[in-house]
Design goal:
Number of strands: 8
Largest sheet: 5 strands, antiparallel
Structural class: alpha+beta
Shape: elongated
Low-confidence stretches: 54-61, 419-424
Strand order of the largest sheet: 4-3-2-1-5
Number of helices: 14
Radius of gyration: 39 Å
Strand content: 5-15%
């Protein structure tokens, strides 16, 4: 083999760059083979080994290794090039220096990405703990990732310009104050854009509400310095990108993705119309199909309770049903049977604290259509029915206007009445 290489080198002496080119191509092939062996042999063997293990802790650690090791495997061909480029004969020193600098920078960048991936995996593993929500560490890990990226960028810069890392770090400290003063808004906007893009808090097409910026509409553009929102009245609002980090806003994407939009509205019942149901009225409640089963169970419960009372005791001590309680049961069952109400989400019909406007009977449920027009139509249809059937239970809604009859006079009070026979 050595003799063959010697004869090949001797035959290529008339061509000075031929031998260096062949050696360089061979080095690239060796780097590619190292990368291929690392990915298709070592990594696959590691995958099979970790899948075959049954130990619990090793199974949990598998996620960390499988996420970090592929990143580290990218550094193998760079290390091969870094080590082998100096062995190529007749290669200019400048080319060797540039190639080694690029390889070193690539290795540093690969290590930084691997550390960032490891921090993400650590956060996911920590969030699986039962009490992780009480003390989240995501913010601290994000700061650590920023520090890693900054140090990696400085190291790459120092490597490419041929300077020492300590000297670059010292010079950066002197320029930091001037840079922050001149590019303050740009830096803040850039950091906000990176954070928005990484955590996905705002995306194109999202419906957001930000009262402090008079924004209520759909996000149409996300740029470095501004986020453009087309409001529902077709006006345009531009929000500084950094405001989405420092100020609070509401994003309705979660509602749209959940498949349900909340209805939270109250009927204010006049307190004077709440009463016990008499015998005839109680029997009439059985004609409502929706509460037929509820009414039968309720009657059996009350009969069993009242049967334990002394017959001589006044009827005021007996348990009786009220028209408001029956109506509340009807509303709940009406919503349970409504085809446009999402039955997999929270559904409550409850009484709130009585106030000067009556007894609030709150309906809390979700529609299965999140579109604005469809949602408003469903909500209106529900309350149309609830208001229309309210008198069937002997109830009435509270209104601020008086129920007293109005006295209408066609005579102007400012004009004195004429007495018959009086002089003009």
């Amino acid at each position: 083999m050595s003799e063959w290489i010697g004869r090949l080198q001797a035959s290529l002496q008339p061509y000075p760059w031929a031998w260096a080119g062949i050696a360089l191509c061979g080095l690239v092939v060796i780097a590619w083979l190292a990368n291929w062996l690392t990915r298709h042999v070592l990594l696959r063997g590691l995958h099979r080994l970790l899948r075959a293990t049954t130990h619990r802790e090793a199974g949990q650690d598998r996620e960390v290794r499988l996420a970090v090791v592929p990143r580290l495997a990218n550094a193998v061909p760079a290390l091969v090039l870094y080590a082998g480029v100096g062995a190529i004969p007749d290669l200019p020193a400048l080319v060797v220096t540039v190639v080694r600098a690029l390889c070193q920078a690539f290795v540093v960048l690969t290590l930084a990405l691997a550390v960032a991936r490891a921090l993400d995996v650590v956060n996911r593993a920590y969030e699986r703990r039962p009490k992780a929500h009480e003390k989240p560490i995501k913010g601290y890990l994000q700061v650590a990732k920023i520090v890693v990226y900054v140090l990696a960028a400085l190291s790459v810069f120092a490597t490419l310009i041929g300077a020492r890392f300590v000297h670059v770090l010292t010079g950066l400290g002197a320029m930091t104050a001037v840079t922050l003063l001149i590019f303050q808004d740009t830096i803040l906007s850039f950091v906000a854009s990176v954070q928005i893009g990484s955590d996905g808090r705002v995306r194109l097409g999202d419906w957001i509400q930000m009262p402090s910026q008079n924004a209520d509409g759909e996000v149409t553009d996300i740029a470095l310095h501004t986020v453009t929102v087309q409001n529902w009245d077709k006006t345009i609002t531009t929000i500084p990108t950094k405001k989405l980090i420092s100020d609070s806003f509401k994003n309705w994407r979660g509602m749209i993705e959940s498949g349900g939009r909340r209805i939270k509205r109250s009927l204010h019942i006049d307190q004077k119309s709440v009463r016990f149901l008499g015998g005839d009225e109680a029997r009439l409640m059985g004609r409502f199909r929706l509460i037929e089963r509820y009414w039968g169970e309720k009657q059996r419960e009350l009969d069993a309770w009242n049967a334990r009372l002394d017959p001589q005791v006044d009827a005021v001590n007996a348990r009786r049903v009220t028209n408001l309680g029956t109506y509340r049961a009807y509303v709940e069952r009406y919503l349970r049977a409504h085809p446009a109400v999402n039955q997999e989400m929270t559904l409550i019909v409850r009484q709130l604290q009585p106030c000067e406007t009556g007894i609030p009977l709150e309906v809390y449920c979700f529609t299965n259509d999140t579109r604005w027009a469809a949602y408003e139509c469903i909500q209106s249809d529900i309350f149309d029915h609830l208001l229309a059937i309210l008198p069937e239970f002997g109830l009435s809604v509270f209104q601020a206007s008086s129920d007293a009859p109005l006295r209408i006079s066609l005579t102007d009070a400012r004009t004195p009445h004429r007495v018959p026979g009086a002089a003009c």
